User: Fold this.
Amino acid sequence: MRAWTIDHSAPDHLALAEHPDPEPGPGQALIEVAAFSLNYGEAVGVVPHGENGTVPGWDAAGVVVRAAADGSGPAVGTRVVTLGPGGAWAELRAVDTDWIGTLPEGVDLGEASTLPVAAGSALRGLRRLGPILGRRVLVTGAGSGVGRYTLQLAARGGAHVIALTTDPAKEETLRALGAHEVVVADRGASGGAWLVERLSDGPVHGVIDMVGGAIRVAAYRTVAPGGTLIAMGHSSGAAETFPHGDFAGPLGHDRAITSFFLLHDGAGIGADLTWLAGLLASGGLDAGVGWRGPWTGGAEALAALAEGKVPGKAVLDLPSAT
Assistant:
């Protein structure tokens, strides 16, 4: 098969080359990949620092061409969306059946490929906040792939959703995705008080943070007692320095910060992906594809994603797309 492999001798750390076909284990199905989506973490972490010769990629959609030998998972011919720690950027992919979601008829495979990391992280992150019906939820990095799905799912769950972005041009889009309020952050903002001052209606029950750095520090200050900030990304690349007193009782007791990474919490994700695909099919979710092209443009798309030039998700289609 052909696949994108990590090649640190290449300018983009990638090469499109022949690679051995994957050999599925007993609990894995073999998928003919029709489309895959890219993630920021792959662009800035996996590809520059991965092992030479490996096939990267977390998200892919396609068709089952060999069912799992142990009888688990979907049958041959089933259209599916898949998640895994690697192997998505190839013509064929072997995937644990527990990490495979089935797709309704009519769902675009490229749009479906955006679901695993972005929508899966949004869904499971929001669950970690606990009940959100009637509660205030802040989403930082709201224009990212994960952020866009978080806005939609939080609004569907009955939350009052506040979107934080550094780009005022995104306000209309973020409101259309479910944000009840949009706060525009100054790119050079520092310290912890400025965001509290902009949330005139008081603290929030939970935060889903994709940015880190000064934004994470400010967002933590907005959390009410009993609330949680979930650190789900770190697109700023900046360190967090919390002012003295941020963890003291007078500022608000019983507040939590926790981290989340979907690939370490993937058990049963197949059922979640099936549910999310149903929402996508019914028009209940917007995939937010901001860049789409043939898979031969993988290096170009990855660079655009790393540089923040892709609004939403980047999708690559294979020529055998079903």
User: Anything to note?
Assistant: The two ends are 17 Å apart (CA to CA). The chain is about 25% helix and 25% strand. The chain has two domains: 2-114+287-317, 119-262. The chain has a mean pLDDT of 93.
